[in-house]
Amino acid sequence: MRAANCSNSKTDRVSEPVSPTTADLVICHARCVATVDAQRRELSNGWVAITGGLISAIGTGTPPASNETIDATDCLVTPGLVNTHHHLYQNLTRAFPPMTDKALFGWLQSLYPLWRAIDTESVYVSAWVGLAELALSGCTTSTDHLYLHPRGAGDLLSAEIGAALDLGVRFHPTRGSMSLSEKDGGLPPDDVVADDDEILADSESAVHRHHDPSFGAMTRVALAPCSPFSVTENLMVRTAELAERLDVRLHTHFAENAEDDEFSISTFGCRPMEYLERTGWCSDRTWVAHCVMPDADEIVRLGAAGVGAAHCPSSNLILSSGIAPVVELRAAGVKVGLGVDGSSSADSASLWLEARQAMLLAKLRDGPGAGTARMALEVATVGGAGCLGREGEIGSLQVGSVADVAIWSLTGPSFSGAVADPIEAWLRCGPNAARDTIVNGRAIVRDGALVSSRLEDMLAEHDILARRIQRLDRV
Ligand SMILES: [Zn+2]
């Protein structure tokens, strides 16, 4: 028996015009379809029809004819979740003891000596496994901030794009960079940085080879100097100019913790916000990671400029960085998305878990009414779409948007008694993972398991590579 309906008063008996042709796939009988569309419609006994990789109709009650059906009885159906910040290769050094008690700068300096060993093989395998982990948590679009390009390591960006294409996850790799090494006052070792001209030439090449600006694209490239403490000011300025010329997005770490603030003041003579402004980065082309430390005036300036922010709650907690002012940022107009951050700081990579953390931290910081499950769902979906410049295309379920969908079972002991509000239940109960994850109309997770048959082989290979990079392969 199906339990309670969606609780929200916006629930309507709504039916979009049904396509005259038979749909490829219909997801039907959902306890609730949370569309996260402009009206935030929540449809009891809802269905979603998919044709040609796009959502062709949405409604309630009797579903239209289709070639394939997924029964979502007792399930919540949401847009696929969007991960706006990650460093996939870092799952090779999870829970590595020398760094587990460090704050950001000490954590980074413990790990750089290991990460300099990455190559195309380890980047492919870590990306494949990391994206599989994300898909199991309902993620359908992920970014990756790949800022480490050791000399002679090969074309790492192409390697991770290959992994995403093989798995079928929508992917926004960023061509990251570092140009300020220890000898110049930065944090990274000398052999993982490159000079500015080399970085810019390779960035432009990566965009020409991989960036697809078309609607529904599976791969889009952004430019992403690692952080103000690992690149020159010249590179920040010229990267912003290049992104403008190529019409791609910009990404970097920003105002992550107190050390970050102190470095900016002592090195650049200003707070990170002013640095962002003077380097030409304060625009709606930019989304930043973390944004923990902005003051009230800076929040207003970020919102006015249309900057996006990737909120990474678990990482901010593990590194004792602080609690990002998500409620204030959203109120100021900042497009706040959700990020798992690298798997050596988070160390898990579940977007469901990050959504729950975002809800809990917002309650702690701004009161119980501020951090709701609906707010966290928005951050995890349309907020992420805003960060990536894809509102109306990903992150919501509406006719014409791409068919990226997550289906969550709300059954079993942990959901018993949660009969009144399926969206609050989704995050307050659990732990949970996606029952089905659909990207571009194609299931990549079914019944809680990855559809690909390669998982066991990839995990075995990942284990060998992780032991090698952590120098534990001979122990
Ligand atoms: Zn990061």
Number of strands: 17
Taking all Cα atoms into account, the compactness measure Rg is 22 Å
Shape: globular
- How many strands, what sense, and barrel or not for the largest sheet? 9 strands, mixed
List low-pLDDT spans.
1-5, 7-16
Average predicted confidence as pLDDT: 93
Q: How many distinct helices? A: 14
Bound molecules: zinc ion
> Roughly what percent helix?
25-40%
- The proportion of residues in beta strands is 15-25%
How many angstroms separate the termini?
55 Å
Alpha-beta content class: alpha/beta
Can you put this structure into words, describing what you see?
With 475 residues, the protein is α/β, with parallel strands linked by helices. Helices cover 34% and strands 20% of the residues. The protein contains 14 helices and 17 strands. Strands 1, 2, 3, 4, 5, 14, 15, 16 and 17 form a 9-stranded mixed sheet that branches. Strand 11 (286-290), helix 8 and strand 12 (308-311) form a beta-alpha-beta unit. Helix 4 runs parallel beside helix 5. The longest helix has 17 residues, at 120-136. The termini are far apart. Mean pLDDT is 93; it is low at 1-5 and 7-16.
Descriptive keywords:
4-stranded parallel beta sheet; binds zinc ion; 475 residues; 34% helix; alpha/beta; globular; 17 strands
SSE topology:
Layout: E1 23-34, E2 42-51, E3 54-60, E4 66-71, E5 75-79, E6 81-83, H1 104-115, H2 120-136, E7 139-146, H3 156-167, E8 170-177, H4 196-210, E9 222-225, H5 233-246, E10 250-254, H6 258-268, H7 272-278, E11 286-290, H8 296-305, E12 308-311, H9 313-318, H10 326-331, E13 335-338, H11 351-366, H12 373-387, E14 405-409, H13 422-428, E15 436-439, E16 442-446, E17 449-450, H14 455-469
Parallel strand pairs: 1-4, 1-5, 6-7, 7-8, 8-9, 10-11, 11-12, 12-13
Antiparallel strand pairs: 1-2, 2-3, 5-14, 14-15, 15-16, 16-17
Helix pairs in contact: 2-3, 2-14, 4-5, 11-12
Bound molecules: zinc ion.
Zinc ion is lined by residues 85, 87, 145, 253, 289, 341-342.
